[in-house]
Write a structure and sequence with these properties.
Pfam families: ABC_tran. The structure is a single chain. The chain has helices spanning 45-52, 75-85, 101-106, 116-128, 144-156, 174-189, 201-206; strands at residues 2-12, 18-29, 34-38, 60-65, 68-69, 86-90, 162-166, 193-197, 209-214, 217-220. By secondary structure, it is α/β, with parallel strands linked by helices. It has a domain at 30-49 and 86-220: Rossmann fold. A hairpin with a 2-residue loop joins strand 4 and strand 5. The radius of gyration is 18 Å and the shape is globular. Bound molecules: adenosine-5'-triphosphate (ATP).
């Protein structure tokens, strides 16, 4: 699903010096995997997510996602790539406040009136995330966890096989965050590939693999075998 090779990404600092955030990073994510990327603040997690999602193409190295080589694509081709292959989920939901839940889910489909088919699909996705009964509510009348579920339904609208998530439980309390993580686990069992950057242990312990961003590269975390046995 994802193949990144020898990625170097640098930013220019306020005083003009180059800061190298990603430094020879490579990454492989198989179809159907669930990967958490962890690392301290400023280590480059969001930067990496932007490159993988085709939001930023100013780097050295190669990124291929869902069979599409991103380096060198023009803006229009990148937009098509994102629309076909990737759903984004952000920490702060990014819902449009004056649209209802179902209208937010419909956002990727149209600029104008939505077709009855599109509306049906949006409703079935809201049903999938447990929110059909609240489809006409504005985001302000939904809890944080419910807003994130609407955002996840919207991310799934175009039928992507990959969700890229930036701190998706970062604004949620423990219980609500746990519900959203359960939803991610279900989606992953249904075949969606997930890559989430996160500070949260709960999120990374739900993932199949945990990669730590360290000095501009990814290092696979080894996890202790799950404790089992007799109690
Ligand atoms: N547009 C930019 N211009 C200059 N420097 C930038 C820019 N975007 C990010 N940086 C710098 O690159 C580094 C990595 O930022 P990034 O947002 O990827 O880190 P992060 O690991 O996601 O951090 P956090 O966990 O706090 O969100 C930081 O030092 C940041 O200041």
């Amino acid at each position: 699903m994802i193949r990144a090779r020898d990625i170097v990404k640098q930013y220019r600092d306020g005083d003009g010096t180059e800061v190298r955030v990603l430094d020879g990073l490579s990454l492989d994510v198989a179809d159907g995997d669930f990967v958490a990327v962890v690392g301290p603040s400023g280590s480059g997690k969001s930067t990496l997510l932007h490159l993988l999602g085709g939001l930023d193409v100013h780097y050295q190295g190669d990124v291929e996602v869902a069979g599409v080589k991103l380096s060198g694509l023009k803006d229009k081709e990148l937009a098509r790539f994102r629309n076909q292959h990737v759903g984004f989920v952000f920490q702060s939901f990014h819902l449009i406040p004056n649209l209802s839940a179902v209208e937010n889910v419909l956002m990727p489909s149209h600029f104008g009136a939505a077709s009855p088919e599109a509306r049906k699909r949006a409703e079935s996705l809201l049903d999938r995330v447990g929110l059909l009964a609240k489809k006409d509510r504005a985001p302000v009348r939904l809890s944080g966890g419910e807003r994130q579920r609407v955002a996840i339904a919207r991310a799934l609208f175009t039928g992507p096989r990959l969700l890229l998530c930036d701190e998706p439980t970062g604004n949620l309390d423990a219980a609500t965050g746990a519900g959203v993580i359960t939803l991610f686990e279900e989606l992953n069992r249904e075949g969606i590939t997930l890559l989430a950057v996160t500070h949260e242990d709960r999120m990374s312990s739900a993932a199949r693999r945990v990669l730590r961003l360290k000095e501009g590269r990814l290092v696979e975390e080894t996890r202790p075998a799950l404790a089992g046995g007799v109690s």
